[in-house]
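Quick one:
INPUT:
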């Protein structure tokens, strides 16, 4: 091979390298949020947390709220989101369709805990005092992928021998916990499911009066809603994201109120949710 030929090949190779697009580092972290409350309220009440993550991470953060729980799961599966705030049950569902993993969980300042409860509420004026009184009534769940708004109360109802489709007059899904509080307060339904902390928030906002509420049923402790990431994110980005959340202290976050901060969590912490789904006869693979 002549010197001229080698020189031409060298210049050609250099040209190819220069023409090749540079691999760009990720500059935006896309965060999904389940619509546990009205979507606009969810974004507004998550602003402090998202701003703190952006500051700690040194990367722009964009929040997204889907119209329903499954919308966030599908956005993760399509890689339109990098991380997401999911309910415990919607997280378990997500793991059956796309590689995601829980990494941190919030600790609320009010209770100093990383768990909450599902409840079924009615108005005292309805005369409903226990689960048997629900028969023949109008009932509201939150969302088929909701932990405290569907999976846990469904398991509780079935354990008590109550089959919603058979024993309730009507069954609806409102799409949000606060909507359930309003539905009960306005008489749209006789009883509804709701997370205890979201009921507290609904009372504080004047959506329903505390003295008018009858707690018909209350679940065992449920692990708090986790932040999850796509497993295929770069390991260095995962570490930075986790550190960004763990550095957050004393901020308000949506229905959870003021937080002490975030604590590490793992997939195994949600096995109790998987067991509850079995008790509720929910086939996770068919529940999508």
């Amino acid at each position: 091979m002549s010197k001229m030929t080698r020189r031409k090949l060298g210049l050609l190779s250099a040209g190819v390298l220069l023409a090749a697009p540079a691999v760009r580092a990720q500059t935006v972290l896309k965060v999904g949020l389940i619509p546990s409350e009205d979507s606009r309220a969810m974004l507004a009440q998550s602003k402090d947390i998202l701003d703190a993550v952006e500051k700690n991470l040194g990367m722009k953060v964009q929040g997204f709220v889907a119209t329903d729980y499954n919308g966030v799961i599908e956005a993760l599966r399509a890689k339109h989101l990098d991380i997401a705030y999911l309910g415990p049950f919607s997280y378990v569902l997500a793991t059956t369709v796309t590689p995601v993993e829980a990494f941190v969980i919030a600790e609320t300042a009010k209770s100093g805990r990383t768990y909450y409860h599902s409840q079924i509420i009615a108005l005292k004026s309805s005369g409903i005092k226990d689960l048997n009184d629900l028969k023949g009534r109008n009932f509201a769940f939150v969302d088929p992928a909701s932990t405290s708004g569907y999976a846990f109360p469904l398991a509780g109802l079935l354990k008590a021998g109550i089959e919603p489709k058979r024993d309730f007059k009507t069954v609806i899904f409102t799409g949000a916990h606060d909507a359930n509080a309003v539905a009960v307060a306005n008489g749209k339904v006789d009883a509804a499911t709701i997370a205890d902390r979201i009921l507290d928030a609904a009372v504080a906002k004047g959506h329903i009066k505390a003295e008018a509420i009858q707690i018909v049923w209350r679940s065992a402790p449920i692990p708090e809603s986790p932040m999850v990431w796509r497993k295929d994110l770069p390991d260095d980005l995962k570490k930075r994201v986790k550190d960004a959340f763990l550095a957050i202290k004393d901020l308000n976050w949506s229905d959870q109120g003021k937080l002490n901060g975030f604590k590490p969590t793992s997939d195994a912490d949600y096995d109790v949710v998987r067991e509850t789904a079995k008790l509720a006869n929910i086939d996770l693979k068919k529940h999508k």
